[in-house]
Amino acid sequence: MAAVPPGIRMLVSFDRDQWYRALTFILTFLLYTSFHLSRKPISIVKSELHKNCSSVSEIATLASSSGSPQPPPQSHHTDMDCSWKPFDKKNYRQLLGAMDYSFLCAYAVGMYLSGIIGERLPIRLYLTVGMLSSGLFTCLFGLGYVYNIHSMGFYVCVQVANGLVQTTGWPSVVTCISNWFGKGRRGLVMGLWNSHTSVGNILGSLIAGYWVSSNWGMSFIVPGIIIAVMGVVCFFFLIEHPNDLKSMYAQNTSPGKRVPTKSWNGVNGHTEVYHQYKDNQTQAYCYYEDSVQNRKSYDTELLLPSDSVCVPAQTVVVVKRESEPSAISFMGALRIPGVIEFSLCLLFAKLVSYTFLFWLPLYITKTAHLDAKKAGDLSTLFDVGGIVGGILAGVISDKLGKRATTCAVMLLLAAPTLYGFSMISEFGFGPTIGMLLVCGGLVNGPYSLITTAVSADLGTHKSLKGNARALSTVTAIIDGTGSIGAALGPLLAGLLSAGGWDRVFYMLMTADFLALLCLLRLVTKELTSSKSPPISAVELKEL
Questions:
Q1: Could you give the CA distance from residue 334 to residue 342 in angstroms, rounded to a whole number?
Q2: How many angstroms separate the Cα of 119 from the Cα of each of 183, 184, 453?
Q3: Which residues contact residue 99 at a Cβ distance below 8 angstroms, ignoring those fewer than 6 apart?
Q4: Alpha-carbon distance 405 to 398, whole Å?
Q5: pLDDT at position 76 over 60
């Protein structure tokens, strides 16, 4: 007999629960990858909505002076200039910033409500509806190109609606992944899992960059279709909690199926299994019937009298179901130690991260004089660094048992690195690539750690006494507060960039220092603690 291949031996070594855990990890990873994939195109398309018209004029001048009979290529959507109305005006930066702000402000407001609603609805259905709606509104933005729409109100309304429905994503996937994975090595697991943010940004940049110069509408339509398809996949395959599987297998257990057991001798000539009820006392007589053909099916439910009666026994599977815990209130979630500090820290950390998310391609276009596609491709290096930074933050915080200290150190290093990036980015591709990777790791490391492992730790804090239903609300509060910073960052970048990009980087460095200040109390408590917790450093006692 041939030996079993090692790959097959490895596959069969995993039990059923491990396979379902792996399925949940991969599925939720792909689901939220599609969320970020659909958010990224706007940053790539910005440089196409407002082009450098001077370069177009130079091409036209050269063509006319050389006597070339062929006119320079022009889009059929343009009239007198090279930009897309209404972004052809001098205040285009403010208009683009307002469009970002409309999405992120709606996202921040909706996030506070999303966690509360998500705890009271089935996660699978809630997430499916949100993804289908997000796909619709993302495609609508791209249809503005197809139908030649130049109304600023149209694009703002689409952004607001998309921001609201996208809030269904984060609390749902964090709650689901936390239900399947305990606190053991949570930083590493969450760090690997949270790389979906950067993977989605990279894929979104590549997809949007492929069509940005020829048909920027497809830069939105294709990601919109992808997230809608993933919403259908979510509906058919997402398992919210391991207990759902127990209930499913209990329901699928058929009374007619015989489980192999030891043989029992019949009593009084009977060939079936009976329970005898007499004087409110039960005595079981078990029989094993060798012939399945003689087995009878009893579907009638009997009301047993006080007299002795024999009833054909059925296989009964008892599933212990604990009482459903009540959802935590908003103020109750705020009273969990560490929630306010980490929420405020994330406000400033996410301000920095989302400013890069929405403005980095345009910054590269203006400073390095690259076209929209090349700038979008180069900006993906920031997200590559973010993947490494998120994983490192999780591993280090697991090893040290100090979440706040890990975030604080990375924030402290990020501020001077941002200043270095603003200086070095003018000296060619080599230094720019290196600084993009380093900045991505230091900026997205704390952001990744707080939104995943820290949120899961606080959502299962010991003060909740095992009430897992608080996880969605706690996650929504932390990410919702961070989303306020995410809304302010791109808006301020649009206003400050008119006076020079240096002002934008000073704003980002200031935000990093403020994020660090928000964690000082927790860092002090962690460092002065005589004994650190083995896994989570956020299980803090009340002061």
A1: 11
A2: 21, 24, 19
A3: 42, 155, 156, 159
A4: 12
A5: no
Are the CB atoms for 188 and 445 separated by under 8 Å? no
Look at residue 538 in the predicted model and tell me its pLDDT: 41
Which residues are within 8 A (CB) of 176 and not within 5 positions of it... i.e. 6 or more apart?
Answer: 24, 28, 123, 238, 239, 240, 241
Any residues with CB less than 8 A from the CB of 477 and at least 6 apart, and which? 112, 115, 330, 333, 334, 339, 343
Gap between the Cα atoms of 111 and 170, Å rounded: 9
- CB-based contact 537:527 (threshold 8 Å): no
Q: Which amino acid is at 446?
A: P
Query: What stretch of H or E contains 414?
Result: helix 403-424
Closest CA to 538 of 469, 467, 472, 478: 478
Q: What is the CA radius of gyration of the chain?
A: 29
SS3 state of residue 191: helix
Residue pLDDT, tens place only, 432-462: 788 889 999 999 999 889 988 887 777 666 6
pTM tops 0.85, yes or no: no
Read off φ and ψ for residue 275, nearest 5 degrees.
-115, 125
261 vs 220, which has greater pLDDT? 220
Helix (H) or strand (E) holding 277: strand 274-278
Question: How far is it, in rounded angstroms, from Cα 312 to Cα 314?
Answer: 7
Residue with tokens 């008892």: 318
Ramachandran sector of residue 277 (left: φ over 0; alpha: ψ -120 to 50; beta: rest):
beta
How confident is the model over 498-517, as pLDDT tens digits? 888 889 999 999 999 999 99
Token pair of 533 as six digits: 């917790």
Using DSSP's 3-state secondary structure scheme, residue 287 falls into coil
Residues ≥6 apart with Cβ < 8 Å to 236: none
